[in-house]
Design brief:
By secondary structure, this protein is mostly helical. The protein is 57% helix and 7% strand. The chain contains 5 helices and 3 strands.
Length: 176
């Protein structure tokens, strides 16, 4: 694909991901959450031009920065996402305003890294951006999967065992 088509595809995918993350959505806890980011990363690695031809060291440093930034943004997205479980066991997530802020900050810092690379004369291909997006999605998914282990179902007060019964005072202490 050409660079313009790649860039357009990346913008469309990121736009869809952001809009989806800001709406309540059911999480399939049985799903293999790592497949889509890994496939995206493999597509990026197959494309030529991941590292610039003229400045290998600077290009590798910028790519490393992009990957570290992607992982940091992904973890930030997961930590700012609200997750909860319903009484029937379904698990839901929804991005918050902080999630949108993390996306905005991540995009702004990525733009700054791109400008820095351009100022240094380092050629940056869209495959590096695609790999960074894959790192973002992988880190977000992995962190969310880890956070899901702590989610407990929300049970209405009337359905809880002992709901509505007076609590007894510990032995030797009177209730006032």
């Amino acid at each position: 694909m050409s660079g313009a088509v790649d860039a357009l595809a990346i913008v469309v995918v990121v736009g869809l991901v952001i809009s989806r993350q800001l709406r309540p959505s059911r999480i399939n806890t049985e799903k293999r959450w790592w497949i889509a980011p890994v496939v995206l990363g493999l597509v990026a690695l197959r494309q030529p031009g991941l590292l610039g031809t003229g400045h290998h060291t600077a290009s590798a440093a910028l790519l490393g920065t992009e990957l570290l930034l992607g992982a940091t943004v992904g973890a930030g997205l997961a930590w700012t996402t609200r997750i909860w479980a319903e009484a029937d066991g379904t698990v839901w997530s929804r991005g918050t305003r902080a999630t949108a802020s993390v996306w905005g900050a991540g995009i702004a810092v990525r733009a700054a890294v791109f400008v820095l690379g351009s100022a240094l004369g380092v050629h940056q291909d869209t495959s590096a951006l695609l790999l960074a997006v894959a790192a973002t999605l992988l880190a977000r998914s992995a962190t969310l999967a880890w956070r899901l282990s702590t989610v407990r179902p929300t049970v209405p007060a009337a359905a809880r065992y002992g709901a509505g019964l007076p609590r007894s005072a510990p032995a030797g202490k009177e209730r006032v």
